[in-house]
Amino acid sequence: MSRAHTNTADAGAAPLARLYGRFVWSRLAVIGILVAALLVSVLFDVATGPSPLSVADIVTGLLDRGALPRGQAVTL
Questions:
Q1: Which domain holds residue 35?
Q2: pLDDT tens for each residue of 20-68
Q3: Could you give the number of structural domains in the chain?
Q4: In this structure, which of 33, 42, 47, 69 has its CB flanked by the most CB atoms within 10 Å?
């Protein structure tokens, strides 16, 4: 391959690499937003359901199982 041909290929790849990088970051942002929405919906579902757990109790129970009474830990 000639040197001119290699430079042309490299010059065309740079914008494509930038576009792909933006695409990847946008996908990661969408996935992050969906995961956050899922966590909020699970917290809301458990907090508004028939169990007497508040959102603070749910977060505490998920982080430290021993902090809740046994019945609430089983419910969670």
A1: 3-75
A2: 999 999 999 999 999 999 999 988 888 888 777 888 888 888 888 788 8
A3: 1
A4: 47
